[in-house]
Amino acid sequence: MKDIDSVTETAIEFEGVIKRYGDAVAVNGLNLSIQRGELVTFLGPSGCGKTTSLRLIAGLELPSEGRLLIAGRDVSRDPASERNVGMVFQSYALFPHLSVLENVAYGPSIRGLKKAEAHDKARTILDQIGLGGLHQRLPSELSGGQQQRVAVARAIVQQPDVILFDEPLSNVDAKLRRRVRSEIRALQQEFGLTAVYVTHDQEEALAVSDRIVVMEKGQIAQVGTPEDLYERPASAFISSFIGDANLIAGRVQSSRFTGAGLDLPVSGNDGPASLSIRPERIALATGGTARIESATYLGSRMEYGVISGGMSLLVSRPIPETRLEPGAAVHLQIDPAGVIRLD
Amino acid sequence: MKQFDRASFGWLGLLLFSVLILPWYRGGDFGASALGEGLGTQPWLLPIAVSAVLLAGLALTVDDWRRHVAILPLSIAGLVLMTLQGFAIGLNGPLIPGIAAIYPTAEQGQSGIGLGGLVTGLAFLGLISDALAARGFCRGERFAAACVVIIVALLSLFVFFPIIKLGTAAFTDAEGALAITPFLTRISGAELWGLACLTSRYSCGVVINTVVLGVLSAAFATGLGLALALLVARTDFRLKRTLRAISILPIITPPFVVGVAIIVLFGRSGVVTAEVADWFGVRPGRWIYGLPGILLAQVLAFTPVTFLVLLGTLEAINPTLEEASGTLGAKPFVTFRKITWPLLRPGIAAAFLLAFIESLADFGNPIVLGGGYDVLSTKIFFAVVGAQYDLGNAATLAIVLLALTLAAFWVQTRWLGRASYVTVSGRSDAGLAAPVPRWVRVAAIAAVVPFVVFTLAVYTIVLFGGFVTDLGRLDLTPTVSHIWTAFSFEIGAEGLRLYGSAWDSLITTLWVSALSAPLTMGIGILTAWLVMRQDFFGRRAFEFGTMLSFAIPGTVVGVSYIVAFNVPPVDITGTMVILVICFMFRNMPVGMRAGMAALAQIDRSMEEASQTMGAGGARTLRDVVLPLIRPAIFTALVYSFVTAMTAVSAVIFLVSARHNMATAYIMGRVENGEYALAIAYSAVLMIVMIACVALIQFAVGHRNLGRRTELQGAPAAQTAE
Questions:
Q1: Stretch B26-52: mean pLDDT, rounded?
Q2: Distance from CA of B525 to the nearest CA of A (A)
Q3: Which of A159, B280, B380, B470 is 20 to 30 Å apart from B664, CA to CA?
């Protein structure tokens, strides 16, 4: 199927894809290209269209309008069974009536391999992924982490054009998540897979992705590397969705911003403006016009609610600093490099 | 990239083969195909052959032919041409004036379609579905698209078409012309709506009779069902298990058997009647024939249904609600009246409506016990088979019955859909159900005891009545003479020879049940899968249509099948095929419900996983879905089998001398007053049925266990990571 001469670097291409369900629009004009070997995450609140976009790639939904290309081929009207994608489902979706080996060999045997060959192929991949001794188990006899690895093995056994992860960590124990997500990332890099990953957890997205696509109401809000999104959010939505942020409304006059009792140097035109300031970019000194409203001990840091100029701001400080009590008068010291002007 | 996919070329090959070679008409020879007959005396078949050849030519010459603009219109045109000619030219000539001008030979008419016509239609449908799938129908999934299109076509042919035909029959006058007056005359008559019974000795109209019977029988059955449900769910009553067991009996009992047993008990020469006459010196009366008898039989037959519905409702009430009421200081009686009772009300309404609908549809008991009390279902029957053969009248009555049933269904879904307070959630409901107040318990026991006594008496009669010399005269000498009349045989030089009068009907019944059960299960489960898992234009209408076929009373189905299928193009009355088809479409909604319930329990991403690994719809269904919903398959199989063995209302119209069914045969014996033979045969039928169900369980359940035992036995200890 793959034509050697026209190997493109683009693995997946969305061209103005729209998906409607009756009157509701789930995905509204998506344009995006995903490079070969890249791990791209769709991130957004529930109902933003991220899972629909993933299912469009899988062929589990067909676009209402627009074109979708995988490996240079227009697959807009092809059902899932005629595409070459692997998918790891949120629930893993392992077949409970088949053994681990049969689960992994299912795809190869569907695609025409003899039973023995399919089993050999499945054995190889299971050994590579560290599930060597569990071939004859039923999925119900495996731990959650093992089940997840079987699901991954099953998705990559056929060398798919792309592997899709639909919230793969949502059924993993909170303590194991960090480990499993780095396993997924390592595996993706080891096999050189093109991967699309869906999550609503921004920390998870920052940790695994080459690029993140933040979606809102069926449209792309911003695309960029994890650093881009955290350090240079394009909108208030992005800055508050990725990490915590203080959104401050005010006015700019002669390159100085005033609002919420602050007076900061900013660039750009005069007029009404809003700023985004990360909580860890604000330092507190005693004495001043602002007042501590609440102080919460979080183990690794202190979180303060501070009232400044009538606005409530979130401030995050490392523990070794002197602890401040609610009611204390404080002065806000803001690192200008941490100030982002929105709009 | 030119893909020659086998599936689509399969439809094309099938189309060409049928159009060129298979006999178009029923009973034709090979070669007497659409082409052969079309070039001969039936030129109206030629356009069909031409569109088939055009389709094949196009597919071979263009790239990616499934998406070619001409494929869909051509396939639809073929199907439309087929349908048009079928209905335009009947057995004795043109049905639409003007056809003879184009085709002079149409004056000679044509017979019903055969293998060729059937396969051609199927192939056109397959091609339509393929073309639709290529345009994104069913998410491009071709197997699912084909199933949807073919099932819609089958439902149109075997559910909607007969009903429409029935409607036209009701509007047809004596000369066969369409007119509204005969319908109005028939439907407004005193025969239907008369209230003479209130003021005189004459009987009321048949609609009034039907509704009165339905309301009374539903009220009594609901009351008894509620008493049973309260005893089982909310008391420590000792006979709980017996009550549950009794509730299963009517499912395997042919509907009129209860009626027959009642005659044997209370009829003019009945066991009880004779004793009572002896003791009190009263003359044996005929009071049981008519409303009292039918009512008694129906209450006994429907109480188990209402019991199951109300038991379900009671068990779904979250006991913490009643506990909360208790902690707030309410006495048990107050809790029952203020909490339990309001929560039960929707269940009671549902049970009532269900029993009402069953009573409307019941044919067996009214015909056995009716006497002079006519109800719609029996009146329809006599209008068709009686001396006064009047199809127009039968069709009108059938429409009234259908309207009543649909109205009840409508009330059930519309009104109850909103009123349900069932409080089932995923969380476990801790807490103990409150016991019912004492007086409720006493009342329930008082109601239930006679019911249990009656039921036991009825089933004692059914089990033993056929094996004693004469139950009516209390001659209890054991005998096999009744059974021998029905099932005598001889093993002689020519091998086994069956002489008994009942063998033919028993063998036909077994054949029809064995053929229809897997087909019914198949179409039911497939439809459930389509409705639950596929996403296609018109899915809701599709689901509604399949459920509608369940709402149509058996008598209405019977009449409508006679009206629709005793003339070409689909001419199948008097065959075994019509019996099998009738059961298939009447019982498919049950298989469908079982399938839908099972599928709701199964994570659909397993099927999606199978698809992303390259499996098409058929493969996914076979490898993933079916192994996981085996219990639903079993339920659907058993239900369709048992219903086919015991149903009487629809088949009584469709049986023929050659293909008689057991229930119809037994009805005949009852009409002749041969009660012992009828009861003996019923007992045999029930035993055969239980044996068959055991066999199905062995076949379906056995594979289930065999597949997995060795793996279940594997060490399962090291599950920790």
A1: 89
A2: 19
A3: B470
